[in-house]
Amino acid sequence: MSEWTQEQWESLCDGCGKCCMIRLQDEDTNEVHTTNVACKLFDRHTCRCSDYLNRSINVPDCVTLTVQNVKELSWMPDSCAYRLVANAQDLPDWHHLVSKDRQTIHELGFSVQDRSICETEIAEEDLEDHLVNWPGEHRRG
Q1: Phi, psi torsion values for 111, nearest 5 degrees
Q2: To which H or E segment does residue 9 belong?
Q3: Is the residue at 57 inside a domain?
Q4: In this structure, is residue 1 part of a structural domain?
Q5: Angle CA(17)–CA(6)–CA(82) in degrees, nearest 5?
Q6: pLDDT at position 74
Q7: First to last CA, the chain
Q8: Are residues 45 and 111 in contact, defined by beta-carbon separation less than 8 angstroms?
């Protein structure tokens, strides 16, 4: 992976959108919980960032995945292609590089397409009311 071009690296993204969902970390247990509340830049219909090139400017805590940090980001879903490749595991059948169709992930329900709300639609103190466990994602401490 360290020798991949930027285009090759970016092509690995399956477009699930799970990494754009807001997470909460339990202060006592350090367990990370995922919500169905998306970053303000997330397009819930396309499962893509609406301003990908400027995301780190507009959302300072947006994490840019790199070859160096992908193994350290324990909050990434188990089904994440970046995580799978970094751990020398096969991509799932619904991944577009296997199925040859970017819609397969959505059709089979492994993305968050049309199943999230925008962070601007709720109050921060209500985030706990929006905890979910998406397909392909497990809770971790």
Answers
A1: -115, 175
A2: helix 6-11
A3: yes
A4: no
A5: 40
A6: 85
A7: 27
A8: no
Q: Token digits for 139?
A: 């809770």
Q: How many domains does the chain have?
A: 1
% pLDDT > 90, the chain? 74
Q: Over range 19-46, report the average pLDDT.
A: 94
Residues 96/14, Cβ–Cβ less than 8 Å: yes
Say how many C-beta atoms besides its own lie within 10 A of residue 60's C-beta.
7
What does the alpha-carbon distance between residue 128 and residue 121 come to, in Å, rounded to a whole number? 14
Domain of residue 115: give its range.
6-132
- SS3 of 79-114: the string is CCHHHHHHCCCCCCCCCHHHHCCCCHHHHCCCCCCC
Q: Which two tokens stand for residue 27?
A: 């202060």
Sign of the dihedral through C-alpha 50, 54, 56, 58? negative
Length of the chain: 141
* Model confidence, pTM: 0.89
> Is residue 68 domain-resident?
yes
74-133 tens-digit pLDDT = 888 888 999 999 999 999 999 999 999 999 999 999 999 999 999 999 999 999 999 998
- Domain membership flag for residue 26: yes
Q: Which structure tokens are listed for 63?
A: 């994490």
